[in-house]
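Box 3.1 A note on notation
Throughout this textbook, protein chains are presented in two layers. The first layer is the amino acid sequence; the second is a token string describing backbone geometry. Keep the layers aligned when reading.
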Amino acid sequence: MASSPRVVVLAGGVGGSKFTLGVREALARRGAPEATVVVNTGDDLWLSGVRLQPDVDSILYALAGVGDTERGWGRAGDTERVNHELQQWGAGWPWFTLGDLDLGTHLARTGWLREGLTPTLVLERLSRRWPLGVRMLPMTDAEVDTYVRVDGGAVLHFQEWWTRHRAQLTPLEFTNPGMRHARPAPGVAEAIADADVVLVAPSNPVVSIGPILAVPGMREALAATSAQVVGVSPIIGGAVVRGMADVCLTAIGVETSAAAVAAHYGARRDGGVLDAWLLAEEDAALAASVDAGGVRAVVAPLWMRDALASADIVDAALAAAGH
């Protein structure tokens, strides 16, 4: 009979949303406790006076079953009347759509923040609306929005570089002002310490997982836990599955390959974060290279076509951790 491990997931973006659905399904099969999902908040921003948390909301909506699976963000069946009106006033960003239902989330969040609630408490309150089947925590309560310095010297908010320019402006550096003073959100370090397994989702290694690992104290928590830390490659067959992670990887000098990303995260025994790494079947030839870097390579099917397929990937990751 499969064991019932306590699981922590580090996640962000569409890949993180799909993977988290798989985590919920896999743990439900085992009768295991709900996972704790530590979500990237590096792509958060203020826009038109409201606080947006794109990765938080993507995972929240996916778990609630109300996300727009076609676009990969926002609410299914949403309308854009308010967004249109904002544009008529010349407010907001014309290339950054806020759906009406989605805006309701942002307004609720902003109101609670202005009342003095922390992002952790706000996310707890947002999570009460639907039976999510996981516990969601922001990576930090500090504001550490990601900025991109591009060729030519301009510095853009990540969302402008990613959404408006579609990552076509050559990035030279990704920064998170305020990160030096950030700390893991309440409950994050404790969840990692108590976990049996920590899973690194197949999210963008640079702008989704990178900010999580950059929070002071996060790597120390991962180093100290007795849990096995297992990552899942976001690269299949030498290509990104979705988005523009390859552009981000190139900017920090990392090849777009499953083995290179494993080396980027590094082996925990050598000061990195990984004990094991799931590679796609298409990348099986790279397993020896991953093993040589001190990370145990496990080859498995990695296409997250639906929640059941994602759950099978999670099962393989848990098995790699001895569960």
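Residues 67 and 75 are 5 Å apart (CA to CA). The mean pLDDT is 96.
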